[in-house]
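Section 3.1: Structural characterization of target chains.
Under the original work plan, the team committed to producing a structural model for every single-chain target entering the pipeline before any wet-lab resources were allocated. The record below documents one such target. The sequence was received from the expression subgroup and is listed exactly as submitted; it comprises 287 residues.
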Amino acid sequence: MSKITAMYIRLSMEDEDVSLNQKEESNSVSSQRELLEAFIGNHSELKDTKVQEYCDDGFTGTKFERPGYMKLMEDVRADKISCIVVKDLSRLGRDYIEVGSLLEQILPLYQVRVIAVNDNYDSDNYDGSTGGMNVAFKNLIYMLYSRDLSNKVSSAMHTRILKGENISGQLRYGYVKDPNDKHKIIVDPEAAEVVKLIFELTAQGKSKTEVANYLNAQGIDTPSAYKKRKGSRNFFHAVEVKSLWSTSSIRDILNDEVYLGKLIWNKTKKRIGSNNTSSYVPKDEWM
């Protein structure tokens, strides 16, 4: 069985121009694809091979749990791939330790060639190594760039929060984005009636379990079922099951300060690195 030449493409928020709030065309999925296809077509040892694309659109390079990347590595371990072609090494990831391990240990083990077009990197040009300090330095620069850009994004978000703008893509049940202003949220009348009902039943002395049972008996959609019915793209259930109201879902709504007209940000901070660990922020630093 002939092996695959893999084109790996990745685009994420790290490629976003913070000031213009738009993604640079040079890093777009389509332009990456065109660049890689042109490169493969101009190299005789690659153009006659079977080419397969692996793509992660909207996934950060500081994490490696990306569907396209994981499928790529699955095929590497299955000995299906002979060469991986990327726009630059930052497409593989922005953690220089992880990318270094990938280039120095994992891919050589499976005899997989790696080409980073814009970095002028080809692992076949290095005998017994993968570029040494030159590649290590580039990977470090990519990670530092990611951290710097993360700080810029955080600063821009901080400014928007202080102006009272919404920055979250996931809105609480009962709210929707204003069609005339994507940074403003407004009440969703249909879902808001259910939220009001939950608070009214609780005020009458009913327990959370009783409230959940009542909503289920009335056939009222849960928040996830409601979003799916409304055509939300952010619905992640792979299996078709009827969702039911539960004690915890009622508790979450009753305890959420958003229903008091408050939006709270900066409760946690995430450290960029191999584990992307989160830590809680002191309450006096919340916004």
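DSSP finds nine helices and eleven strands in the chain.
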